[in-house]
Design goal:
By secondary structure, this protein is an alpha+beta fold. It has five helices and 13 strands. Helix 4 runs antiparallel to helix 5.
């Protein structure tokens, strides 16, 4: 061993540095808030499948089978369009505008600015300038499937003879099963599962609970003047609601407090 190797026995040690190995701080795993990828929507050009009537609004497309959509013709009739490749959305002629009529029914306007209606022979046309009884449709969701019922109590379907769009079936079979796909931005509410009383910052939450359990008839809020830091600590320790109740008890502002 050379003289250099004999002297250089370890790494450079600075003055005041301890020989004890440093403990590595364990990093807490962060919960990912990244939304789940909707592969079904991606395969349809980011047109996602609606699952309730509240979602049927704005730009939509009515799909039969896989990637075949109801297509508007310039003569006011509708037909089944050609199948699309995976990843492609509907063509402009296949895009409709959904208009909410009430909590149960919607109307659809074609790209020619005409509303879809059911004629007496069951043919679906797009020649109406306004929404009447014949232009209203009721989406029927059941067991993860969807059918569209017209004013004549018949369901939207495809004429097997010429691929025209009709509403003649009194019962919804597999041929009447559709998907209504939307291109409107989805409403994402991260607080949808959080009780109303617990929405907001610490101070707002305390006010919410005082309002909920207040026993005074004059409706004047009795809010604790104590620092809210104890509430923040209680929330971390899992004793948040007990701390809130204790603060309300001191103010005699809770009908459940003695």
């Amino acid at each position: 061993m050379s003289e250099y190797d004999r002297v250089r026995k370890g790494k450079l040690k600075l003055k005041g540095e301890s020989d004890k190995p440093k403990k590595r701080k364990r990093k807490e795993k962060k919960i990912s808030n990244t939304p789940k990828v909707d592969n079904d929507a991606l395969s349809h050009g980011n047109w996602w499948k609606t699952t309730k009537i509240e979602e049927i609004r704005g730009s939509v497309a009515i799909e039969f089978g896989s990637r075949t959509y109801v297509k508007a013709l310039d003569n006011g009739l509708f037909t089944l369009g050609a199948p699309h490749n995976e990843g492609d959305g509907p063509s402009p002629e296949e895009i409709l505008t959904a208009v909410v009529v009430n909590e149960k029914k919607v109307a659809f306007k074609s790209g020619y600015d005409k509303y879809l209606r059911v004629e007496k022979d069951g043919t679906v046309t797009g020649r109406s300038d306004a929404i009447g009884a014949m232009e209203q449709w009721e989406p029927v969701f059941q067991d993860g499937k969807l059918a569209l019922q017209g004013y004549n109590d018949c369901f939207l379907g495809v004429d097997p003879d010429d691929d025209g769009i009709v509403a003649r079936a009194k019962t919804a079979s597999q041929n009447e099963m559709i998907s209504i796909r939307s291109h409107t931005a989805r409403e994402v509410n991260p607080l949808k599962d959080v009780p109303t009383e617990e929405q907001g910052d610490i101070q707002q939450i305390e006010v919410n609970y005082v309002k909920k359990f207040q026993k005074f008839q004059d409706k004047r809020l009795r809010i604790s003047k104590e620092d809210t830091k104890e509430l923040e600590k209680a929330k971390q320790d899992g004793a948040f609601h007990e701390a809130l109740l204790d603060r309300r008890s001191k103010m005699k502002a809770d009908r459940y407090c003695k």
